[in-house]
């Protein structure tokens, strides 16, 4: 058996976005390496029979980024976005399922952001910014009356099926009513070219504007499977810079131009999904669980914006429709597929997977997902919604010695049930302890460690285990997988009980002889980076720490980051590591992306300057955002982090 290398981690091919054909017979999906080797990503498409009767084959190969595959209604064509004509500029392509040279359908200088296939097969709705000859892209703050910034009027539909809006003049036409007057408050036009809707006529290749949403930015557009209304989600601004981007939900008929407002959806609305019951077609979406900004996602009925998952002790992840409404749920360390029963209004469990599922797609009585368990990396699985789900293709990364992974269950100081994972060095057991222990804290805080294969450039439990460390992967309060109350409990109290949740788990591993009390390290990224910095500012138990893209000052982040009002709902100056940085004696490795807009570089600079001449290293990766994407940077991070812990926890 071979040893794990950093190259094996970042060069592994990771599947994504599996899509089942409408007849349920085929699955197409994208794959890409963990790390990007050049300026632009490279990803390929693969096609396989849904029954696994033949191995997957590469579909329309090209040294470019091919992504977002979708099927025509007759299951004969596959459409996808690709920048094979001009790198970095995505266009729409299609090819026959049997293969052949893909046909380029668009030539849009500004690139296509997204698309929706209309069921009749003769047209495609494009989501793209308006084309301009000049390259200017100003960022402008407009205070007061913002010319042309239309706000969606309030309104909604009652319960029952969602029918197309009645025919009427298309918005923006001479007969259409004037747009409402914009409100008198500061508004943003943060991108000169917000995404809009366009209709591509396939027989003629003609493209024309579709609808008029003023200056609002189109985020999603999803066609109803029977050719009726188009569901459209818009924001008031085209990026997250101000942290306020009021959403609106619309029904739009591409045949008549008629538009109907569905009112204001839940914050962070996403994943518009058409599904059908005996009353007709309905629309659902994911959004933040009310009340408040912290507490994770819920499933909503778009007709009345009713929370369909209220009170569930689990957390929805993804939706799939076309027939009954299906959803993926995070349930502790596991993931389930559930189906909504319209009669009871409850989601009934169909399939439970030990580990993670993502990329849910449904068609013809078949579902496809990307699945991973404690012993198997990400692979595409397919089968009936109630299982079993069969793996398509061979298991990757064979011949490597892996560390054993255990599920942990324990109670917090206040009696709250908690879970997590433990990864031991390859070939070792608990009896071989105590080991140097690295606690790896996930971000979010609304995220989790599922009982999946822990292999990635940051979620690198196997990489650290291969270096001789035991790795503790906790899910403290605030994580997903245990319902709204569990997730919302950290609002305004980050670093409080969630920190003691970490310490309780570490204490148990020390008591059990797994962890060496004198060789403890901690690492985290994003909110996990906050937790790592917070930990070493409040205890000297840890002999080494890694803070990656970490939050150091909550008020500063609220003023400079993408999620201002959400950051203010989480932390304050008192719960900021910078307030307590004078106490830090633990050596800290600080790493950050230079172009991070989520947690700006100023956060890392603040910690670096606060530590002064105390032992620490400060590493900035150029061209990187909140997550490292370049292969060389991922390799450097993996080696640098493991060397840091190896030196200080020896």
From TrEMBL:
Pfam families: PD40, Peptidase_S9. One of its GO terms (molecular function) is serine-type endopeptidase activity. One of its GO terms (biological process) is proteolysis. Residues 462-649 form the Peptidase S9 prolyl oligopeptidase catalytic domain. Residues 163-176 have a biased composition (Low complexity). Keywords: Hydrolase, Protease, Serine protease. Residues 50-70, 147-190 are annotated as: Disordered. PANTHER family: DIPEPTIDYL PEPTIDASE FAMILY MEMBER 6, SERINE PEPTIDASE S9 FAMILY MEMBER. This is Peptidase S9 prolyl oligopeptidase active site domain protein. It comes from Amycolatopsis vancoresmycina DSM 44592.
